[in-house]
Design goal:
Layout (H helix, E strand, L loop, with lengths): L3 H22 L2 E5 L8 E5 L1 H5 L3 E5 L3 H17 L9 E5 L2 E7 L5 H4 L1 H7 L6 E5 L39 E5 H4 L6 E4 L5 E4 L9 E5 H7 L13 E4 L8 E4 L5 H4 L2
Parallel strand pairs: 3-6
Antiparallel strand pairs: 1-2, 2-3, 4-5, 5-6, 7-10, 8-9, 8-11, 11-12
Amino acid sequence: MATPEEHAAHNTAAKKRILSDIKEHGFHVALFNGDGYSPSFAYTIGLYRNFGYPELICFGFGLDLLHSVLWEGKRLLDKYPQPDQSIGYPNFLEGFDVRLVTVDASRYQDYFGYAAWFYQSWDFPALQIVWPDKQAFYPWNEGFNSDWKAAQPLLDRDHDFKFPEDRKLGVYTTRQVLEGSPILRVSHETDGDWQFLCDTTNDVADVKIVCLEHIIEKDPSVNELFQLNYGWTAWRESVEDDWETWEEPEENAEDSGQ
């Protein structure tokens, strides 16, 4: 994990690059690597101010391809400044169409931090470039490749459930949580299991399995942890406090018998 000093230095360098690219090209492409759980993504900054276009965001490809996709998206907006969201735009990705959907403003804070810094507000339009699978199915179509679902969150819908997993995924909790105790600790295990705990019991008899959707219905603030990576834990003292996160240390070779 980066130190606060390293994080500050990164932010300073990133902001300089954003301003430089916008001055030279009219917009900047902000690129973010995936972490093994959350997908890679990229978005534009400056299209709205300099061209009157919505900013663009896309998920799931390598960074070089994401950079190319957003440049191609800008060329698409040059031709169609108000693109039709009910149709696909052909041959955008080596013979495949893409679709454009409006990003709901409730999702801006999840992804568009540097854009908000540039505009000094969240008041700008944004479109998501959505790509199909190899059978030309989109994520909202029955038959879309389920292995690719997590690579491309849809930012125009499901604002009440941000996790990439299925709503019916079984997760661990406690009897006390189901009876009303607050969730104070959330663990995302390296094998993908989730635990939503109240920190009031260590009794195995209190462990329950429920669907992830039920947990979020009980405590919508858990949605804030939809990007919690494998092997990480979040904790708070009370429901009024912000979540703090940390990565659980791996067992050393001697302890694990390796």
